[in-house]
């Protein structure tokens, strides 16, 4: 234990014992909590194909562009529904019964996947008024159709 010596008016020193047990208990609980929390944040991450934290060295060759890289696949989530852009073709998927047409979007994405089987990238943009959950649904729809490299565009749909 830690001792603190302090003198009193008579010149004698008092021996005061500092109790460290509650502090050690608190620190062990905090460390355990932080370790458990760190594990859960890793479990909840979505792998979307590209690594934001990946390091590139000078010895790595430049990757070759994927096939059909010039064909842009973009999913716009707007107040009126989905707008799917494949190259220069624009497909509008209006809302059905005031709900986003997720089944229609997946069907159109699967049709695009049949036309371009090597294509794995997609861009999702969301209007500011749309809830965050709808962005996640659009990303899930892209993943279920086979597009694993998903990018989120900022600034909203055009």
UniProtKB/TrEMBL annotation:
It holds the Pfam family ExbD. It is a single-pass membrane protein; Single-pass type II membrane protein. It is found in: Cell membrane. The chain crosses the membrane at residues 20-40. It comes from the Bacteria. Keywords: Cell membrane, Membrane, Protein transport, Transmembrane, Transmembrane helix, Transport. One of its GO terms (molecular function) is transmembrane transporter activity. GO terms for biological process: protein transport. The keyword Coiled coil does not apply. GO terms for cellular component: plasma membrane. InterPro entries: ExbD. Belongs to the ExbD/TolR family. This is TolR protein. It comes from Bdellovibrio bacteriovorus.
